[in-house]
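[job 4471] stage=fold_predict status=RUNNING
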Amino acid sequence: MSLQLLGFDNVLLPVGDLGAAVDFYERAGFPLAFRLDEAGIALLKVGEETPGVLLREEEGLLPRPPGDWAVRVWLEVPDARAAGRELAAAGVVPDEPISVSTGWTVELADPWGNVVGFTDYLKRPSLARTPVDVREPEPAAV
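[job 4471] inference complete, writing structure tokens
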């Protein structure tokens, strides 16, 4: 079989309390794309891509630590160690940075045991996405 995979759609994370989950992930730097309380879902943006992290409220899901069962979703950032410091400053404390073959990674678990990692390509920059340049353009030379 040769299945043609085109890319990622949304990554769904089960949560027990949509409001608390949105608050947690906003503190972790995820912009909210939309929230539909009546459907029990909220979509968080990831970069400029259309897919994102979809939080789905599941009745009766209680807070729990991550276990061996936890799926890990890693998202690319320009500098994972700097991201870890920013997360900690925002009160969302990740694990200590770990060295990986491409750079560094920090992981954090939400209250329901979902694990999100922030990874960089500092050791293999040729594999990295090009960060969006937010500087003002230089004036054209006359």
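[job 4471] summary: DSSP finds two helices and eight strands in the chain.
[job 4471] exit 0
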